[in-house]
Amino acid sequence: MGPLGLDGHGVVDLAVYGIVLVAGRGERLWPLTSTRPKPLLPLPNGDTILGRVVRLFRGMVDGFIFVVGYLGDLVRWYIDNILGVPCYYVFQEVQRGTGDAVRLAFDRLPRGVDLVVVVYGDLMFDHGIVARVRECIEDGVNCVVGVWRDDPWNYGVLFVDGRGRLERVVEKPSRELVGGRSLVNAGVYVFRVDELSSVLDKLKPSVRGEYELTDALNMLASTGSVKVVGFEDFWTDVGRPWDYLDSVRWLIESSLRGEQVVEGEVEPGARLVGPVYVGRNAVVRSYSVVEGPAWIEGEVGPLTHVRSGTFVASKAKLGAFTQVKSSIVLEDARASHLNYVGDSIVGEKANLG
Fold first, then answer.
1. What is the domain class of 253-352 according to CATH?
2. 16-239: in CATH 3.90.550.10
3. pTM of this prediction?
4. What pLDDT is stored for residue 9 in this prediction?
């Protein structure tokens, strides 16, 4: 049976599987990733980066293959017990690149699958990207999603011909080659299984000593068989702390849409300004001010100032005369009194005296 669309209606009569790459170590986010892999970084409302990716795509695939590696047992527990999606697991024991990861996944792919949706498990993007992937599935063609960037030299740039077909992808090209605003690789693909399989076995190690999925993409592009679909809305690869901060702020803004939602307790004298969420088990104590966009799941106050762009996770506590701006305060963290936290991430169970 073919995949289901997000609205519950059949999309195409093709068997489609999702391949999600979650094997990396996330070293640029250390020490946050010392106890959890990057795709399991927390988001507001009890979600994670990986959880959000899976929920966005689960309606259009028949099942998933997760390529796990670093802290793979933790990823498997989360998927089995929290997400509960039909899936297989592949363990990438040695990190030999994204091409190697997809090749391992193909060894586990059930018979009769026509298309695969390949996505990195550490991406944050607007749900509109799903519609672009749906287009590719309906067309039954190889496809790569591109997003527009003003600093394309930091990404893999997509060079596209007049028919909207990929000519080649160039990783982190010189500024002279790309100039200004360009379409870059979003790390979201649709591949015909037979065509991708034919080039995966031809991959050779890159200059980094890894087998690159983009090399396979270039092989397919040389035959004119890869469609490029552009995407204008929010997208980021959560590779560094500031990417995590930007993603959480965007998610808060897009979730609240200018509204206040109060499910918990706001004590007399406390004040909420602008779009603020106060969770069911949260409390904003007397004479505290919370300026939105902000998302509160823990305890704030009394006499605390929370400024815009802040996420206070469950069981976290901000005490008296503490000010927090554009920051993430993770579960069980404490900033008990007389603290200033700005543009920062406070790890779980951390204590700022």
1. mainly beta
2. yes
3. 0.91
4. 36
